[in-house]
Amino acid sequence: MSKLHVGATYELTVKRKIETGYVLTDGKEEILLHNNEVTKELNENDEVDVFLYHNKKDLMVATMSIPELDVDTYDWVQVVSKVQNLGVFVDIGIQKEILVFKDDLPLMEEVWPDEGDELFITLDLDRKGKLLGKPVTEEIIDQERDRADKTILNKTIGGRVYNATKIGSFIITENGYRGFIHASERKREPRLGEWVEGRVIDVKEDGTINVSLRPLKQEGMVEDADLILDFMKNSGGSMPYHDKSDPEEIRETFQLSKAAFKRALGKLMKEKKVEQRDGQTVIINK
Question: What would the pLDDT profile of 265-276 be if each residue is shown by its tens digit?
Answer without folding.
Answer: 888 888 888 888
